[in-house]
Description:
5-stranded parallel beta sheet, 26% helix, alpha/beta, 6 helices
Amino acid sequence: xxxxxxxDLRIAAVHVARAQVLGGxxxxxxDDSAALSGVRAVGQGDAVEILRATARSGDAAIIVGAFADRxxxxxxxxAWGVAGIWVGDAQRPADGVATxxxxxxxxxxxxxxxxIADDLREDPAALQPAIVECTDEVCITCSDEGxxxxxxxxxxxLFAPARVRTADGQEDVDVTILGHVRPGDLVLIHAGMAIxxxxxxxxxxxxxxxxxxx
Length: 214
């Protein structure tokens, strides 16, 4: 099996190190993650509900392998302000679902990410976000980019705002354009208004044990 690309390993490690430096938690979702030190192990079965309740903005989550709700979890992480890192050697998520994907044997790659992150924590310059000079006119006319949010509570009455969780925390968002929204819906927010719903990815097809054995 080929080794994970060094660039992907480093990008993943930068996200982990940033979370650690800022006092955040590194969650590792995988059946064998309990053996890793310095991280919070999360089982795959109830990972969405567990991370929804425990993850905080600035955390990082390493998602290992494939399980039914994997891509739906990865899609929600930006709304919680959490960097989503996928590690595995098969059934890679679609482009854009994870913050970064690192292909390879998780038993080797995950400890490798954590080891590189240990070194990066001693190099503050390596953890600084890249500065991108933008010349697009939209930066002049409107500084509010589209942000992802997860609906916590639907509007109690017509034309009232919905309570939405974003990477910046909880906020009231105008959902008039969308109409009916439900808790758990992902929405795109622009200038304090939800302008579109974001569909969740389908479940990941994971072979059952009997299919693997046959």
